[in-house]
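Q: Could you predict the 3D structure of Esterase family protein?
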Amino acid sequence: MDDSFYYKRNIVKELVPSSILGESRTVRISLPPGYQELITYPVIYCQDGEQFINFGRIATHMNRLVYDEGVEPAIIVCVDTITAVRTSEYAPDGALFEDYCRFFTQELLPFVEQKYPVRTSQSERILAGDSLGGTVSLHLALDYRDLFGKVISLSGAFLQSTQERIAKEADLSWLKLYMLIGLEEQEVITERGTFDFLEANRQTRELLEARNCQLTYFEKQGKHLWGFWQHELPAAMKLFL
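A: Sure. Here are the predicted C-alpha cells for Esterase family protein:
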C-alpha cells in the first residue's frame, strides 16, 4: 500500500464551551479511515491533545493499525491543554483539578457524544495521557468508574497523592491499565520539583496489583519524552481496541 494512506488525517477542530472552566476549550477530533456516521466507534480521550497528534502521531498510528493489523477503528478526541494552567488542572492537588474533571465528565463527554457516533459504555471509552496527563486520566477512571474503564499511561506522574488515592480502593479488578515507564526517568524535572518517576511507577504498580487491577506494565529504555512514548503508543492502542 502507498504510504500516503497512513498520513491522510481527518481531523475536525471543535470549541467546547464550558461554564465550569469559564471559557471554551479546543478539542481536535480525529476521525478514523472509512469513517461513517451511521456506525458507532470506540473512543480514545487524550489529555495534552495537540501533543498526542503532533508528537505522538496518534492519528497516523490509528491509520496503520486499521490498514495493516485490522484493528477496529476508533474516534480520537484530543483535548488541548493551556500550558499556564496545565499543572493546576492535571495535578490531583492542583487548584483547578476538580473543575477540570467536572468539565471532562459533565461538558466534554456530552458535547462529543451529541455530535459524533462514539460508544458510551465504560468499556469502550479509553483515557490516554503522558506524565501528569496520565495522572488525571487515572484519577478520572477512579472517580468516575461508571464512565471509564481503560487508561493508557505514558510515564504517569503517579506521586504520593495518586498512590494514596489508589490505596483507598479495595478492588480494582474492573480497571484495565496500560503503564509505560522509562528506565532513564529517575530524575524527571518538573515545575513542582525533580522526581524519580521510575520508582513512583514501581510503587504504583504494587498498589494496583494488590487490588487486582488488569495491568499491562512495561519498563523500557527511554526518557521522559515524546520520542520514547510515540513508538510505544500503537501497542497500547492495539491492546484496548
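Q: Anything worth pointing out?
A: The first strand starts at residue 10 and ends at 18.
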